[in-house]
From TrEMBL:
It comes from Cyberlindnera jadinii (strain ATCC 18201 / CBS 1600 / BCRC 20928 / JCM 3617 / NBRC 0987 / NRRL Y-1542) (Torula yeast). It comes from the Eukaryota. Pfam families: HODM_asu-like (PF11927). InterPro entries: HODM_asu-like (IPR021848). This is HRQ1 protein.
Length: 427
């Protein structure tokens, strides 16, 4: 799966049907002090005039707390599954999120960079100013958003990453390329897109250790977005004309986010198993159905205020189908999408590689939800009201993260199942 393709497609679709900040996102985006009413976001004005980029508010979590910290629980499943993507106004506090897997992502970034080099991290000379601005933006964001995780005693010249223990030296001239600094601070992948004199946008730099599929920086760096989108379903027929118009209007005050997803049976960040299959090949019948995951690609887009470069971030998060089994309608939605989504999407996401293998498992989970009273056979199958998040997203604690509500729900479901079993035995 090519994350930059997915996120750009989403933006193109948003050009046709842009949605402002939804109430759900306001409710799920942190403390009351962080929240602003939709009226405080001048969406129309910001489309045509540059404005100062939004700034994050501090979140005082410690490295010890990060060890058990979960990010917002994404569930980007919708039905009907038609070719429109939900783009939400990004709360800048969630531009670069934190979770308990931070250490793993940072270590994997270093390993992949040393092993594969320019296949995953590369840049063109024309991107120098944008790369420096991105580096400074990421540094400043981390210092402001996570003041106990990133510290500095000299106003950002030297920054200590309290999670890894590394001290980063930002004094000029830099000891390494700006994108290397970025990969040492944030767990997200980054793409930098700039407009050239011909009026079109090009990928000029990228740090993408976790593409998940076949995407390689080496053969797309310096290419236009038209070239990058050449294999995307519906691009030529529905999306191409809207691309440059959307990018010409967005400003630093217009950050957005969304999420895409696909299914696989691993946790590989560089290349997921489903995209390692040869054409027409399916998952081996011996693979345990409980090993299957939904890989959510959490994506953001923002424009840098000085260089005007457009920054895409992508961050993969894995959710096992097993851990979502007691979330109402999730198994039903997955089954429906695997078999009845538009054929081009089924092919693009390679659902055919595993859907027949998963069918008995999903049917069993659906029956389990009926037995537990979570759904009925007549429950309408449609996008969840909490989309694009899990239903428990509002029951969150920004300091403790979003895992406590999920675990509580799972414990309650397990207890209910035990009680039903005991009643059945007694009868």
């Amino acid at each position: 799966m090519d994350p930059v393709i997915v996120v750009l497609v989403a933006l193109l679709l948003a050009a046709v049907a842009y949605k402002p900040l939804i109430t759900l996102l306001n409710k799920s985006s942190g403390s009351a002090a962080d929240k602003k009413p939709p009226s405080a976001v001048p969406v129309k004005a910001a489309y045509y005039v540059d404005a100062e980029a939004p700034q994050p508010t501090p979140l005082y979590i410690t490295p010890e707390q990060v060890k058990t910290y979960d990010d917002r629980p994404w569930r980007p499943f919708r039905w009907p599954y038609h070719q429109t993507m939900s783009i939400f106004k990004l709360d800048i506090n969630h531009w670069l999120d934190m979770d308990k897997y931070y250490w793993h992502y940072i270590q994997e970034k270093e390993r992949i960079y040393h092993e594969y080099g320019k296949d995953n991290i590369d840049w063109l000379p024309e991107s120098e100013d944008a790369c420096i601005e991105l580096m400074e933006t990421v540094r400043d964001h981390m210092l402001k958003r996570y003041p106990l995780l990133f510290t500095s005693e000299d106003n950002g010249v030297h920054v200590k990453n309290e999670l890894t223990g590394e001290v980063l030296d930002f004094s000029m001239p830099l000891k390494d390329h700006p994108l290397i600094y970025v990969t040492k601070m944030a767990k997200e992948d980054f793409y930098i897109v700039q407009k050239r004199a011909d009026g079109h946008h090009y990928l000029v730099a990228a740090a993408v250790p976790f593409p998940g599929g076949s995407f390689g920086i080496s053969y797309k760096i310096g290419k236009s977005l038209d070239f990058i989108h050449s294999e995307v379903p519906y691009y030529e027929s529905k999306l191409k004309k809207s691309m440059e118009r959307w990018f010409s209007k967005t400003t630093a005050a217009d950050p957005v986010e969304r999420a895409s997803w696909y299914c696989t049976w691993d946790h590989n960040l560089l290349c997921s198993n489903v995209y390692a299959l040869k054409k027409g090949e399916t998952v081996d019948s011996s693979v345990d159905e409980r090993k299957f995951n939904i890989r959510v690609e959490r994506q953001t887009v923002r424009r840098l205020p000085k260089t005007k470069a457009i920054i895409f971030t992508n961050h993969p998060v894995y959710y096992s189908i097993e851990e979502m089994k007691d979330e109402p309608l999730i198994p039903s939605l997955l089954k429906k999408i695997f078999y009845e989504a538009p054929e081009d999407i089924i092919k693009y996401k390679n659902f055919t590689a595993m859907r027949d293998h998963l069918l008995p498992y999903l049917d069993g989970l659906i029956q389990r939800q009926i037995d537990l009273g979570l759904i009925t056979e007549d429950t309408p199958l449609k996008t969840l009201p909490s989309y694009p998040f899990a239903h428990f997203v509002e029951q969150s604690d920004e300091i403790k993260g979003w895992n406590t509500a999920m675990l509580k729900r799972q414990d309650e479901a397990a207890r209910k199942k035990e009680e039903e079993a005991k009643k059945a035995q007694a009868a």
